[in-house]
Amino acid sequence: MAAAHTFTVTEVCGEFRVRAVCPGPVGNVRCVPSSPSPAAGPAPTRVRDRRADLLVTLAALALALWVTSGMWRDPNSRAITVNSSDQALFEWLLAFGGHALTHGQNPLYTTLINVPDGVNLAVNTSITVYAAVFAPLTYLIGPPATFLVILTLNLAATAVAWYWLLSRHLVRSRLAAGVGALFIAFCPAMVSHANAHLNWTAGWLVPLLIWGVFRLRRPGRAVTGGIVLGLLVAVAFSIAAEGLFFTALALGVFLVVWALHPARRSEVRAALPRMAAGLGVTALVAGALLAYPLWLHFLGPQRFHGTGFDPLIHSEDIAAYGSYPRRSLAGWAGWGTSLAPNPTEENSFFGVPLLLLAAACFALLWRRADRAFRATLAALGVTAVVFAVLSWGPTVKWSGRRFDQTLPFGVLDNLPVINAALPSRLALVVAPVIGLLLAYAIDSLRARPPRRRVSGLAWALGFAAALLPLVPTPLLTSVREPIPQFITSGAWQRYVPPDGVLTPLPLTVDVYPDGQRWQAYALAHRQGEFRIPSGFFLGPGGPEGRGRIGPVPRTFDSLMDQAGRTGLVPIITDGSIRESRADLRYWGVQAVVLPDRVHGAKFDVDEEALRRTATALLGPPERVEDVWLWRVPA
């Protein structure tokens, strides 16, 4: 047979892919039909594969639209219920990034917020690439609609990218590739982060990075492969630096275990020089592109080391791995739990049936695998276990109860860079491993079906019982307060000079995102610039030199926050009046503005208490359009 047919062998992700005219598997070699001659026309297999590609793409887009359907009714007036603050932040980043690009400003540092100190966006999630690429769309349809387009495309593109990697390089069955890809793209963690996280939902970067790394093993790819991978690293750093870090860690663990396996050692010795040369080129390209962002990140102004988030709170509950997420069919049926630190961080929540299915898939593949493929399975298993244990945080937590046993993350938490990561998010690495196991198992079962029909039926029921409860349901959305006519009409320009400072009440922070929403509207609609004190960002000022959300509070914003939260006017003294007016002078505020309706991201805000408090501090306001306005003399 070998004399009659032509074989083409390539290596991808540690597996030999053999293309020949033999139908079906032969031993441990997977074979697919060779390309037909032009005269013969398209082969039925190729037509079926193209149909499968189209079906998976349409399914990915349909699921992405389904998950985000609550906002498509009116992107400008609806917000994600559980995380409207992050949504407002990303909308502002899109507007500011496009404005910086078209006005020749620094996209990684700005004084438009947090005046007079400004904000280092290199240590925040600046999504600079998205802001630049989608700038025309932002100017055309506005930041809220552009945010929704990117979020939807993120989910769909993640499924398509994983399907491409699986179907073209890892498995023969298009069904296997489709199931694995759709699970990874719409797993509980991805749906959870679809609550406004444009960085974490950009999961399409991960399969491209994996492909770029393993492509370096091929002869003659050191330069071109290194350049491509360097570009991918630069893009990934801009969109999701933390995700890039996790991907690098996961690939490092996988490659070490895979390379140490006896069946792969000779192969590793042969490929190591090519990999080293390619990674060197990658470092040069990525280093050149990221030199300034990295300097700004680690040495620039307004930098910080570590975040202000408590790793004890933002760690994964061990019981969460066997629980169901809230935005799923199981959650809709009442089986969901609240073991996550918040609804945007359900980073595991696989359910017991899926954990059992993953274990069964691993056992099936191990039993059928040759020594070479067992190296891949061992590396996948170790990677999943390592990141699952790290996601549990510094100490053990089970069903909400914290125990004293110290875990590995408690030792690593003081290391640079790692101390800026939230441990619960390390569980995001586990989902792709499970998706790979599902794809490999389906591929193996289709190539060698079980001899007994009962066994095949058991596998089908097992997949259904594990995956159907995790089918996502739409994100919760609600109506958010409209941007005042005072802003949309441009009336603000009569009260604030060019490059002047305006502040809404309460001052802008994560729970009061109005200021950055107003600013995003003005920038995207080319009204000009006004600056605001405070803002929703990560900056210095946290305990032990760590970061914090927003600046350290001052008297004026503390009094306004107290009034808005409680509905009670604080006790106003001559001292608090002097300090509040000194704060306004420090910020350079020309106008203080209170809309009729204030958006509170976590709670309702009492506008009347805010108006009375501001009047006690600044005197009677004037009515302009649909806002109350206090002029602040120089």
Describe this structure in words.
It is a single chain. A 4-stranded mixed sheet has the order 9-12-14-13. The chain has helices spanning 44-67, 69-72, 84-103, 128-133, 135-141, 143-170, 174-185, 188-193, 205-215, 222-260, 265-299, 329-332, 352-368, 371-391, 408-412, 430-447, 453-467, 485-488, 514-524, 555-566, 574-587, 607-618, and strands spanning 8-12, 15-19, 78-80, 109-110, 119-120, 395-398, 401-406, 477-479, 501-504, 538-540, 547-549, 589-595, 622-624, 627-631. The protein contains 22 helices and 14 strands. Residues 1-40 have low confidence and may be disordered.
Observed structural traits:
single chain, 634 residues, alpha+beta, four-stranded mixed sheet, two-stranded antiparallel sheet, 22 helices, 51% helix, disordered N terminus
